[in-house]
Specification:
38% of the residues lie in helices and 15% in strands. The chain has 130 residues and is α+β, with helices and mostly antiparallel strands.
Amino acid sequence: MKTKINTQHIELGKVSWYRDYSFALEEANRLNKPVFILFQEVPGCRTCVNFGIEALSHPLMVELIENEFIPLAIFNNKKGEDEAVLKLYNEPSWNNPVVRIVNSKGKDIVQRLSDSYSPLVLYGIMETAL
């Protein structure tokens, strides 16, 4: 049910992601963890690729995301369930990466992260959410 890091798109980094929104919320409730939602263009632009390579591939970031959150990837350029989740959060399609950290009811815990792709800034919102 999770992506396989050896065969997934580079834009997703080295995090193993869930791809089902409802399942991620159920897991968040069951494990009492927040959901780390990555809204990402896949395949994506240079910014999307760099975010995957830099912020989402560093071993400590991967460990933090996978151990303390329920990681969920939503492709912002796909139809179906991905598009429905984009609409739910009023996120634009074909956008640069956006990160939202939500509770098991899907409500934001911290302000969404967009237009900032530094691993340090990403770490800051994760720390605040926890």
